[in-house]
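We modelled the chain as a single entity of 131 amino acids. Its sequence is:
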Amino acid sequence: MTKGDWLDLTVLERKKYSCLSEVMDLSQQMGQAMDRSDDVSMRMLIALRQEPLLQLQELKRAIDDKRESLSPEDRERVLSLGQGASPQGEEETTYHGQAGAARRLLERILELDERLNRRIAGDNSFYAQEK
């Protein structure tokens, strides 16, 4: 895989992390608004959170497209890094670190989102129906 391919994937993961950071910030603000029983702020924050979520969908498509443009061996290498393989070389290490940071932030967002959703919806929570 070329350095350019690794750079492209790393840049996409960095953009993903940036959007995830925005989602996390807005989600935390939602929790604070809930604590204050501030329905107006909640509605506004929910609406504001939609834009970075839509950007994340676009980034996911761009990442998927980039992976699909790679050779089967390179796609397998990227997949194996995501499943815990050790990076080899500077480009893989940089990509692995950025992708890992985005994955960890996403996990934190999902935990927070579940707590918020359960507080808002109670027994009708999306997460209550899932389990």
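As a brief sanity check on the tokenised model: DSSP finds five helices and no strands in the chain. The longest helix spans residues 3-35.
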